[in-house]
């Protein structure tokens, strides 16, 4: 175990700061146009695939009792990310809609890269921030999600996903044999409704209607409208189109990650709408060093579900004995998920082995595969 004094060193936090290089890379790409526009996906997905292969796994665990002040260099990168992201998005909207050297195709290629920034990094950082008790951090999470028009993710994630993961009530638990191209439209539809229903139910328990101003959806809609208005003010109609396009790319990446994290992993139905507690076995994990730098340890996913507010540098690694492991990091696995036959070839045997290991007594998996078990009470 890494002692708290070592965890606190800035040298251990610096690798998690590599994401900041993406913003100047996008500005350079915008100025050059052409093939420079592939810098963003190359420097995230492909570079980190290579780095994972070269650097291997990191199975070390930081002392989980490391005090909060010792984590300041880790926290800082998540705190400064919102101004970096919002500045990059809206500067490039202003620039791209006025740059004569960028064709329409190049504008969209550039904002594909912006979506890589706001999805691979921004939504991931918002996920870290929304789980914290600090009010500023939770506000930063809301602001980041508003820049990708997916504000309801906070409500869905905190009130639905963490409570009902591995059951039919959780839209983002991908079912066995459900290809991403079927999962994606389903989760876009269901997660919005489940998030709104969860907030409405919370208000109803307090004797308030959904229209009450304490409903966070009013905040979500206001922030999203403000960013759409800013995009229009800086770039007109094309500015709005580019803003919406980068948001779609960001959401696509988020849901690719959601698809990978729990594919085929279901909690046992105990009867009468009751399910076993969430366990480390209900999340796929990956200990690949470089992609965990990029994704601030998101791949240590079992521990995140065990202790959701544990800050990312303290998330614990689980071995094969405790939780299922992916053969590669998320950058490879999300690419594989876009090719359903390849995905099934890689993952379905692993799901079947997982079922045999943990639930040999279950002989009929059809209700789990089709989401037909009773909803959790």
Automatic annotation (TrEMBL):
Q: Name one GO cellular component term.
A: plasma membrane
Q: Where is the Fatty acid desaturase domain?
A: 109-333
| Predominant localisation class | membrane
Q: Do you know which InterPro entries this protein is assigned to?
A: AlkB/XylM (IPR033885), FA_desaturase_dom (IPR005804)
Regions crossing the membrane:
12-29, 35-55, 76-96, 108-126, 225-252
Topology relative to the membrane, per the entry?
Multi-pass membrane protein
Q: Name one GO molecular function term.
A: metal ion binding
Give a yes or no for keyword Transmembrane helix in this entry.
yes
Query: Which keywords has UniProt assigned to this entry?
Result: Cell inner membrane, Cell membrane, Iron, Membrane, Metal-binding, Monooxygenase, Oxidoreductase, Transmembrane, Transmembrane helix
Please name one Pfam family that this protein belongs to.
FA_desaturase
Keyword presence, Transmembrane helix: yes
**GO terms (BP aspect):** lipid metabolic process
Q: Say which family it is in.
A: Belongs to the fatty acid desaturase type 1 family. AlkB subfamily.
Full protein name: Alkane 1-monooxygenase
Organism, per UniProt?
Roseicyclus marinus
């Amino acid at each position: 175990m890494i002692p708290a004094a070592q965890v606190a060193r800035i040298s251990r936090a610096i690798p998690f700061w590599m994401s900041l290089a993406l913003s100047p890379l996008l500005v350079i790409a915008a100025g050059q146009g052409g093939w420079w526009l592939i810098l963003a996906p190359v420097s995230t997905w492909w570079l980190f695939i290579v780095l994972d292969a070269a650097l291997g796994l990191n199975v070390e665990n930081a002392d989980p009792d490391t005090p909060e002040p010792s984590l300041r260099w880790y926290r800082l990168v998540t705190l400064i990310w919102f101004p970096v992201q919002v500045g990059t998005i809206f500067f490039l909207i202003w620039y791209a809609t006025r740059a004569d050297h960028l064709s329409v195709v190049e504008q969209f290629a550039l904002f594909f890269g912006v979506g890589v920034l706001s999805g691979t990094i921004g939504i991931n950082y918002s996920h870290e921030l929304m789980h914290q008790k600090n009010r500023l951090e939770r506000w930063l999470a809301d602001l980041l999600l508003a820049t990708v028009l997916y504000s309801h993710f906070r409500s869905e994630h905190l009130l639905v996903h963490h409570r009902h993961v591995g059951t039919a009530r959780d839209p983002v638990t991908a079912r066995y044999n459900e290809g991403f191209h079927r999962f994606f439209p389903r989760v876009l539809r269901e997660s919005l409704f489940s998030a709104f229903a969860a907030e409405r139910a919370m208000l109803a328990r307090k004797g308030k209607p959904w229209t009450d101003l304490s409903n966070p959806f009013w905040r979500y809609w206001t922030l999203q409208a403000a960013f759409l208005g800013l995009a229009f003010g800086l770039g007109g109609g094309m500015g709005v189109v580019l803003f919406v396009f980068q948001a779609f790319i960001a959401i696509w990446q988020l849901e690719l990650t959601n698809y990978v994290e729990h594919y085929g992993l279901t909690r046992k139905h105990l009867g009468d709408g009751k399910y076993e507690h969430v366990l480390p076995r209900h999340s796929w994990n990956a200990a690949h060093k470089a992609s965990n730098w990029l994704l601030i340890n998101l791949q240590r996913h079992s521990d995140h579900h065990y202790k959701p507010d544990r800050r990312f540098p303290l998330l614990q690694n689980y071995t094969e004995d405790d939780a299922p492991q992916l053969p590669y990091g998320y950058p490879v696995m999300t690419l594989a998920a876009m090719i359903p036959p390849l995905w099934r070839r890689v993952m379905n045997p692993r799901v079947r082995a997982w079922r045999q290991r943990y639930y040999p007594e279950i002989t009929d998996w059809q209700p789990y595969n089709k989401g037909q078990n009773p909803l959790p009470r």
